[in-house]
Amino acid sequence: MSRASRLLDLLQALRRRRYPVTAATLASELGVSARTIYRDVGTLIAQGAAIEGEAGVGYVLRRGYLLPPLRFTDDELDALILGLRLVRHRDDEDLERAAADALAKISAVLPDTHAHEVETSGMLAGPPGRNETPCLKVIRQAIRDEMKLSLCYTDKEGNATERTIWPVAIGFFETSEMLAAWCEKRADFRHFRLDRIESAVPGSERYPRRRRILLAEWRARKGISIPY
Questions:
Q1: What is a single Pfam family found in this protein's UniProt entry (predicted)?
Q2: 36, 85, 88, 217 — which has fewest CB within 10 A?
């Protein structure tokens, strides 16, 4: 591996983490010595990388630092293309447009040897074969803005209820899409299938608590660990 490639891999390893990581851990991951990590970190800092920390404590890449364009392995490129093509089949025009734009950007920055990889990729995705979820865009916006939502929801027994919720996250599964939210009626976290939401009306009030805190509580309660 060239030194330039190793430096980019080190930046990527730091980018994946939210908390300081020791040189020993980075060395094991990249297959080099801890001394090499110390030297490479110093080089990156000298070149302007926003890395904080010190030997014996650990290093972290300051949030908001933009990495230079990274090379993609064949597997990484397949994963990106497949993921974005799956997104394009969701019932959300904004997400569909964003996925198409992202694919175009990826195609534009690929080296000449991979210039046509996106359009000729064998990673294909089709409609998931489920009911439409027209409320997806409204829910996404409420999550982003941390705003309450008023739902008209039909449960699996066919009973319609009115709920005021604090949307936390959307889970996309093979046969359904699930909304995790704090339900004021139940005073607890609840899960709602998007295809059973008859309507979702944005409220005028923000959550009384930050969504990142709610998300952490929901993960802890459900035993869900998400790397990033």
A1: HTH_11
A2: 217
